[in-house]
């Protein structure tokens, strides 16, 4: 029996959105330079909140008849949804959380594409301008709260995890919530949902009424990782690099649960930044954690990091196995250290301006077969540059796994090829094979994983 589809006229949740005629026309524009296709894709992903899929292309094709239109009103703006998924409604009414997320999508897409035109002299390749753009998007979304004590813990981990790992991530979130800490994740299912769900219970027990569950995503991946229902602040950044910068700028510490290539990409991004000499004395707590059954997984990750980046990279994180209380206590202490440091340095609590991010981590990487084959995976470069190029390798695999453009490239030209120094790519190949064996590449129950990559022998 096919799912019912619903047509609806939706009013904004909260303040009415006010758009200029130019902005409305860009959102309606179906040409290559218009925003209609991007807006429709993100809106459809939000309407599929709670539906487990990790294939953006499949999602778009399954709802090919879905449409979203802007309906200007004398007092603002409404959205007309045509053939919207029925599971987004209760008794014909759109779920309130989904309605909030829909207008968050509208807000961020419009703002992201208008701000470069409004900032005098804005350059897309200037590091300071990129950081300022990240700041402006987060501020416009209401994520940056001046006066609030540091309490934001970033939780990274796989969307494709088993029941026991999910329950563990939820218990860690519960312990964080009991200590008054709030959660930022990539907003999807699995280890992105578990900590938020646990924290809601911890916050309820402590009567924390302003607990925050921030989800930060980007257009190319939102269809594969639709926002989970607990997210109460959704932000869509323009690309993966600005998404990653948003995590480390507004988070006060990071917890990493087991995951696949996306989690590995995040780890390498974070360690590459923390290895910069300018960040040597900057407190930033990082904890890797999982169940007792995950101990070998983190041994593998630890060995991979030490081999690729050196023991100094391993000094940047702590591994805690099967102990949610200890994880939360370590993070609470670490966040307190961040607060003390920021106060002494007179740096903002809500945005980490002092964190040095090398421009090579900020430039968008759009994977193609040529770019993936040309990655500089060799040891004749600083550790942070090895981290940069390994991150790009993982980013390309993520694209081939779940992003519409990457999936199409792999379908048309075959898997992305990755080559380089055998001492780097052999451990990489072994780790990727382990991700596949542990079903960390696809959601449980989905079709068998077909690799979007191929490791080739020999240097570039």
From TrEMBL:
<dbReference type="InterPro" id="IPR049788">
    <property type="entry name" value="PpnN"/>
</dbReference>
<dbReference type="InterPro" id="IPR031100">
    <property type="entry name" value="LOG_fam"/>
</dbReference>
<feature type="domain" description="Pyrimidine/purine nucleotide 5'-monophosphate nucleosidase N-terminal">
    <location>
        <begin position="9"/>
        <end position="113"/>
    </location>
</feature>
<feature type="domain" description="Pyrimidine/purine nucleotide 5'-monophosphate nucleosidase C-terminal">
    <location>
        <begin position="336"/>
        <end position="456"/>
    </location>
</feature>
<dbReference type="InterPro" id="IPR021826">
    <property type="entry name" value="PpnN_C"/>
</dbReference>
<dbReference type="GO" id="GO:0005829">
    <property type="term" value="C:cytosol"/>
</dbReference>
<dbReference type="GO" id="GO:0008714">
    <property type="term" value="F:AMP nucleosidase activity"/>
</dbReference>
<protein>
    <recommendedName>
        <fullName>AMP nucleosidase</fullName>
        <ecNumber>3.2.2.4</ecNumber>
    </recommendedName>
</protein>
<dbReference type="InterPro" id="IPR052341">
    <property type="entry name" value="LOG_family_nucleotidases"/>
</dbReference>
<dbReference type="Pfam" id="PF11892">
    <property type="entry name" value="PpnN_C"/>
</dbReference>
<dbReference type="InterPro" id="IPR027820">
    <property type="entry name" value="PpnN_N"/>
</dbReference>
<dbReference type="Pfam" id="PF14793">
    <property type="entry name" value="DUF4478"/>
</dbReference>
<dbReference type="InterPro" id="IPR037153">
    <property type="entry name" value="PpnN-like_sf"/>
</dbReference>
<dbReference type="Pfam" id="PF03641">
    <property type="entry name" value="Lysine_decarbox"/>
</dbReference>
